[in-house]
């Protein structure tokens, strides 16, 4: 089977399940894991700006897309000529069934079950006794955060945090003044690459909040990636609870 993946975290999951570069023939420029394998695969654009002609030239048997990460019009155009699996992952339960579905599709049921078990182990950790309010920033100029209907917000909840903006939708713009209701401010390493210098800028306004950079992949990459984040989650919670 010839597969084109339009989703970075699903590309990683396919390799983790045991598929090869003979089977995965196309991926986006943001599909960066596992590096040794993805470097050998044809790039078919970004998640939001697919090169449809290049995808068609690869003659895939299956294209895997995502409702949030890909553009609806582009996916529908591909559906005219190819079989397209459109995923929609909002919760850990959705993630469980995604891996189960991929495992069934490719005859990798045992590996899918292994990663599902490791994912639940990753979240089977000691949570903070007090549910701390977190403002999670994903972008700068303008500052943008996450609403309660996002996968990132669900992961925060699974780790025992409260999303300060849980009553908002998707990815709202915020002002630094809006973050003063948080106990913690998380600056994600992606999609905007927050650095230490940004902590200083925000701390000037948010003087009473603890601010730290967090691994964006650990909060937003579904599929098999979460199964590898158990140690990161434990270390993060240990540092915060000290």
Structural commentary:
The chain is α/β, with parallel strands linked by helices and about 240 residues long. Helix content is about 35%, strand content about 15%. The protein has ten helices and nine strands. It has helices at about 10-15, 35-40, 50-55, 70-80, 90-105, 110-120, 150-160, 195-205, 215-220, 230-240, and strands spanning about 5, 25, 40-45, 60-65, 85, 135, 160-165, 185-190, 210-215. The strands form two sheets. It has a five-stranded parallel β-sheet, sandwiched between helices. α1 (about 10-15) links the parallel β1 and β2 (about 25). The longest helix is centred in the middle third of the chain and has 14 residues, at about 90-105. The protein is globular. The model has no long low-confidence stretch (mean pLDDT about 95).
Mean pLDDT metric: 96
Main sheet strand line-up = 3-2-1-4-5
Instruction: State the separation between the terminal residues, measured CA to CA.
Output: 50 Å
Helix count, per DSSP? Answer: 10
What portion of the residues fall into strands of 2 or more residues? 5-15%
Got a strand count? 9
Sequence of secondary-structure elements: EHEHEHEHEHHEHEEHEHH
Q: Strand pairing plus helix content: what structural class?
A: alpha/beta
- Percent of residues in helices: 25-40%
Overall geometry: globular
Main beta sheet strand tally, sense and closure? 5 strands, parallel
Low-confidence stretches: none
Radius of gyration: 19 Å
Annotate the secondary structure layout.
Blueprint: E1 3-5, H1 8-16, E2 24-27, H2 35-38, E3 42-43, H3 52-57, E4 62-66, H4 72-79, E5 84-87, H5 92-105, H6 109-122, E6 133-137, H7 151-158, E7 162-163, E8 184-188, H8 196-203, E9 210-214, H9 216-220, H10 230-241
Parallel strand pairs: 1-2, 1-4, 2-3, 4-5, 6-7, 6-8, 8-9
């Amino acid at each position: 089977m010839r597969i084109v993946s339009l989703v970075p975290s699903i590309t990683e999951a396919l390799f983790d399940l045991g598929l090869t570069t003979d089977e995965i023939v196309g991926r986006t420029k943001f599909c960066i894991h596992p590096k040794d394998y993805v470097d050998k695969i044809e790039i078919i654009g970004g998640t939001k700006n697919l090169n449809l002609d290049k995808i068609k030239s690869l003659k895939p048997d299956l294209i895997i897309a995502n409702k949030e990460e890909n553009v609806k019009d582009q996916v529908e155009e591909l559906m005219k000529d190819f079989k397209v699996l459109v995923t929609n992952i909002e919760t850990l339960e959705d993630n469980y069934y995604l891996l189960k579905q991929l495992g069934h599709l490719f005859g990798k049921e045992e590996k899918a079950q292994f990663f599902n078990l490791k994912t639940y182990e990753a979240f089977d950790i000691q949570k903070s006794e007090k549910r701390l309010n977190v403002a999670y920033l994903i972008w700068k100029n303008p500052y943008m955060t996450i609403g309660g209907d996002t996968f990132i917000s669900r992961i925060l909840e699974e780790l025992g945090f409260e999303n300060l903006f849980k009553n908002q939708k998707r990815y709202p713009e915020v002002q630094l003044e809006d973050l003063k209701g948080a106990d913690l401010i998380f600056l994600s390493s992606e999609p905007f690459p927050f650095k230490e210098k940004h902590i200083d800028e925000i701390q000037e306004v948010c003087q009473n909040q603890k601010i730290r950079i967090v691994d964006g992949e650990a909060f937003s990459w579904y599929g098999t990636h979460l199964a590898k984040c158990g140690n990161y989650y434990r270390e993060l919670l240990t540092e915060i609870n000290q």
